[in-house]
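Entry 14. Ran structure prediction on the chain below.
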Amino acid sequence: MDLKSQINLEKLPKHVAVIMDGNGRWAKQHGKPRVFGHRNGVTAVRDTTEAAAELGIEYLTLYAFSTENWNRPKLEVSALMRLLVETLNKEIQTLNKNNIRLKAIGDINKLPGRTHDALLQGIENTAKNDRMTLVLALNYSAKWELTEAARKLAKAAKEGTLDPDQLNEQHISNALATQGIPDPELLIRTSGESRISNFLLWQIAYAELYFTDIFWPDFGKENFYQAIIDFQRRERRFGKISEQLIP
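Output, structure tokens:
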């Protein structure tokens, strides 16, 4: 039995987030520069996006570039930014064909001009699509996001539009970059690393975590299906006990 047929389409996560890791090590394995790994990682992005859309998942968030990634060698960062522009320009037609909307979270105003413009154009050109939303986390970090949210809430309190004594979880969620997007129920990380790396720290409070040793360029549809199957085998209790979940 193939993996896709084992998936219960009635119990899909609405939102899957992915930490795409291992491009550099994959390239090293193949005796190539790190940029070679990033280029081959684009195929995994395409395959994962198609797999998610075909299943009926509503939101897919990909951690494409963190605020910490600026600390990488300048040549690699420059190549990554060029690749982003190239990929966005090339894939917009595919996104429209598949009725997929593009969004972005992160401090995108600090991206290089061409990257920023290509991103905004992609968001605008796919805005009316409603089959699935693909969210790119670019120049993103959860600590940056939470700091920005705290700043917004502090400003609202200072201006008198928010009573600090009435502050609740929904106020915080509404101040985040993911406002209006449901929290991920499944977080996938590739390459054998078992950490969160400053990604969606508030939003993944109750997410199921799935770690695989596969490097990102080798991650395909079958690997995505396996992660969904693993998710569906787990019991999500949200602080309750098993007996309380029985209808």
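Residues 74-97 form the longest helix (24 residues). Will compare against last week's run tomorrow.
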